[in-house]
Each structure stands twice: as C-alpha cells, then as structure tokens.
Amino acid sequence: MPQPEVDRDPFFIGWLKMPRAYARFLAPVTFALVAALTIGGAVLAWAQRSPGPGTWDDAATTFTGIVYTEPYAMIRVPPVEPGGAPRTVLLVEEGKFGAKERARAHDGQPVRVSGTLIARDSRLMLELAAGEDGLRAAELPEAEQAALRRTPPRGHGPVTLRGEIVDSKCYLGAMKPGGGRTHKGCAVLCLKGGVPPLFAARDSGTLYLLTNARGRPLDPSLFDRVGDDVRLEGVSEDWDDLPVLKVSSR
Amino acid sequence: MSVKYAPVKWNRNKKVYDLFVAGGIVAYLAVFLAVGSAVWAGEHAISFPILLARALGTCALVMLHIALAIGPLARLDRRFLPLVYNRRHLGVATFLVGFAHAVVGVGYYHGFGLLNPLVSLLTPPDRVPFEWFGLGALAILFVMAATSHDFWQKTLGGSAWKWLHISVYPAYALLVAHVLFGALRSETNLLYPVVLGVGFVALTGLHLATGLRERRRDEAPLPSQPVRVALEVAWVDVGSVDEIPENRAKVVALPGRERVAVFRHANGISAVTNVCAHQRGPLGEGKIVDGCITCPWHGWEYRPEDGCSPPPFQEKIATHRVKVVGRRVLIDPDPLPPGTPVEPAKIEEECHAAT
To answer: Residue A107 gets which letter from DSSP?
Structure first.
C-alpha cells in the first residue's frame, strides 16, 4: 500500500503538528544536546582555577591596639597567645575604600576596632563596621601600648621580584579569585579608593605590602599594572610581621 | 504569518522549543553553580557572584554557538529546520543571559567604588580592555533582540533587517575576543582555550561546508540548449521537468541575479524568486502545501501563480515568466514585479519528451 504523500515527503510548518520523521530525529538530538550542555557546564565549572585560601568571616571581630595611618591604615594588636609577637591587621572600609581617613584622627593612638575579618594565610585585614562601632578611641595601659608599637624596619636589601600587584582586600578573601586579568577593573577601583596594594611574589608566594621608595603610599601610576605579570625592583623590609617592598622602579 | 502584530505568538512547536531553551539554560546554570560550589568549597570557595557571572557568561557563549550552528545545519539536513523556526527566541534568550552576565560582572567588579560602575567600565586601565569587546557584543545582541519582532522586519525592510541580523557574526567575533583577552588570560586550565577553539572550528566548518555545498549547486552548469528547440533570446533553459519532484522546487542560480525557485505543482511549472519576503528564507527548499509555496523557515505562504500571499495576508514576491517546451523548463531570468500573475506552464505528456 503506497504511503500518503505527507509521509513520503514530510515538511515542517511551524503552526502545524511536527511531522513524525522530524520529531523522531529531533527528539533525541535535542535531549542529547541539553545533556551534553549540562555535562559541559559541569566540566567547565570543575576546571576553574583555585581562587586561593582567603576567607571572609560572617561574624564580627574586635581588636584593641595601636592604629597607624601611614602608609596605609593598619592596627597593631596583641598576639593570639601570650608570649607571641603582636600582629599587624590592615584596615579597610566597606566597599572599595581604605580606612585611612577614618583612622587619621587616632594615628599612633590606642583604638578599639570592630568589623569582619578577612584573612589569607597569616595576613589579616579588618573591614571596619560603620560608625562608632567600627573604630573608637580606647584605653590601653602604657606597657601594652609600648609592646604594640612599631619597631624599626629590618632591611633585606635590594630585590627584583616577579609577580602580580593586587588589591589587598579582594586578594585576602573579599573577592575570590581576587586577582588576574578579569579582576583588574575591580582592583584598580580598590587601589584608587585607598585599599592597600600587595605584591604576590611569583616564586616565593610572599605577600608584600607595596610602598614607594620612601615608605609612603605607592605611586598611583603603578595602579594600571595591577593584575599583570610584572617585575618590580625595590628594597625588601620587614615591618614587624609585615613584609614590605619599597618600590624604586617597575 | 499575521495580519496584525502581537508581542509574542506561541503555538505548540514554539512552546516546546522555548521549553527546551529555558530548561537547557536552567539545567546548565544549576549544574555549573552546583559543581563550582562543590569543587571549590570552604576556604577555597569561589565568590558566588563570580561563579554566577561565569555560569551566565559561558552559558551565553554556548547559546550563541548553537544559534549560529542552526542555520547551516538546517541547510545541510532539512530535519533541523524546526530549530530555525523559533531561532529568534533563542537569540533573545542569548541576549538576556549575556545581559545578566554583564549586570553581575559589572556590578561586582566595577561597583562599590569611587566611580559609577559604568564610568569605571568605560575607563579601563588596560590597553586591551576585554570588557569593551563584551560590551560591543552585548550591544549588537541587544539591537538584534530589540528588532527581532516581525514589526521591525516589516518596518526596516527584509534586506536591511537581514543585514542587521547578520551582525551576529561580528558579535561572535567580539565575544571570542572578550574571552581571549579576559578569562583566558586569567584561567590556567588548557581546557578553556581548547573548548573555545573547538567551538570556533566547528562553526567555521559548518558554515564552510554549507557555503561550499551551495556554491557547488549554484555553479552547476545549466543544460546546453536542445538543438531542436527554437529559443527566444531571453529564455534560459534551467533543466527538465523530471528533475523537479511534485510540489517541490529546483533552485536555479543565474549569474548576477537572485536565485530562482522553479516549482512543479498540479501538472504545471511556476517560477518565483528564491527569497522569502519575511526573513529571506530559501523558498526553493520549501514545499507547495494546500496550493501555496510554503517557506521552510517560518511557513510564510505564496501562491505560485502570482507570488501573493493568500488573503488576508498581503506579502508579495517576484515571479518569473516560465514555459515548458517538450520536457525542458525555460524561464525568463528577469523577475517581474512582486505579485505579478504568471500562468503556470503546463507540463506536456511524457510521450512528448525530447530525447
């Protein structure tokens, strides 16, 4: 018995029922396509590079210590365990801003700061809470103040290091990953807003706080090189527990 | 086809199509987010907005690949034609997913700072601002999505509309540049450049294969003129009626002119332009259904005898004068104004065929 013409020469018209020959072909094709895409999505998600070990706590953290504002806002706080060395905690505001302006009136004075802790390895940062809760003057015995004050830098001489300039807030854990080319626009905004710049050295993995050759804030002309693979020349120092690279040239 | 414009018209095929598109998007995003959150967890967790931006960005790029592949696939195998039918919805969905990627990315990377996010976006520190490539691609996809409705196709004219929508190829190039100068300079896994390269090669291969196939067809020499047939100067012999299946067409490429679709129907031959008035679909790959030439892309209909859509529709296409001498089909290569009636040429009985 001859096939009806519609079956011998099926033709798809959008507003009519799809011919069986088309449906039989397309059903497995489309299901396979959706399945392949979801598997592909899983593989692409799996293959992403590690964003690093940074964390950003949900709970509020409070420190009492001596605040400094040069070259960037930071606070020296007591050690975790008695007998240990005091720790340096970088301070930033909410969003992409440093905390130098808020801390300036208390420079070198004891303060109590509160906010959310951002940490990567042993490097610490506190995003200050808004208002008086975030930063206020505090009473601290003279002996404790003396123990927390900065000590003279220990110099390690000239170095040339290869690595990436990053903004400390994102790189330490506020945004993950907080480095690389796609993050460049964000990092530049952060640095322009006063967030302290760090240098992630490629070979050693050391995180250096970046300053200019005189230990003042980094020259903004270097901000455009953030996120790039760069070589920096300068002088390496330790400011207590904080490795610092005083940049002399690119 | 329609005599009035409605925002969106759905039928069963469109609903199934959109269901697959929406389901595919949701499945892709869900799996990407779930796997990304599971693999990179704890202190190595990727920030959710970044994970979401990546899921949306890769999803949009995959969707664009599919949208670009549908056209050539349907030319190579007509069983893919139903995917062409509602391709505009896939295109609009691609724009929306890409737009969501841009909103999340710009908001997160360029927000919360000294500058307005858009100002920050437009004043990048980089010599090769990958964000600009993405912005350019998104702008093109937006124009395409905004003008995807038949109202704009009618308002702009079929040719202008088609050229506008061919700008999807520059959009694709911009998106590839966006990925090359952005994500691929940050990610270290070789998988990403390999996937992007495979997508590019697959799309290029499909388009080349389709183009070569069409070129071969177009360049197939027209038959030499039968000696016994006395021809008027303008007529062109385009082949035998026996080459044309009933209710189907033979597509003829004439040098310097639009292709002509030569249909066989009801013991007659009619010739019309191969270009649909709607989206310039290939009418010659369509079929005569209920007495009307029906476009394989969106089902627009034209009467073979005058190139007019049946009432109440008002679309018209160019017709060609045609005659059959023996078993040879002769057409006038010069098109008549759209909608000009041309009596179908009657096919003589088999016993009259020239041998």
So the answer is: T
List every span in chain A annotated with CATH 2.40.50. 55-148, 154-249
Cα separation, A232 vs A39, whole angstroms: 43
Buried/exposed A53-70: b ≥16 CB within 10 Å, e otherwise: ebbbeeeebebbbbbbbe
Q: Look up the CATH number of domain B236-352.
A: 2.102.10.10
Over residues B198-245, the pLDDT tens digits come to 999 999 999 999 999 999 988 877 765 544 455 555 799 999 999 999
Residue contact B120–A17, C-beta within 8 A: no
Query: How close does chain B come to A124, measured CA to CA in Å?
Result: 14
Picking from A25, A49, A184, the nearest residue to B188 by CB comes out as A49
Class of domain A55-148 (CATH, top level): mainly beta
Distance from CA of A157 to the nearest CA of B (A): 31
Residue A185 with chain B: CB contacts under 8 Å: 109-110, 120-121, 124-125, 131
Cα A88 → chain centroid: 17
CB contact at 8 A, B95 and B142:
yes
Asked if B24 is an interface residue toward chain A (Cβ–Cβ < 8 A), one would say yes
CATH fold label, A154-249: OB fold (Dihydrolipoamide Acetyltransferase, E2P) (2.40.50)
For the stretch B123-145, pLDDT in tens is 878 777 899 999 999 999 999 99
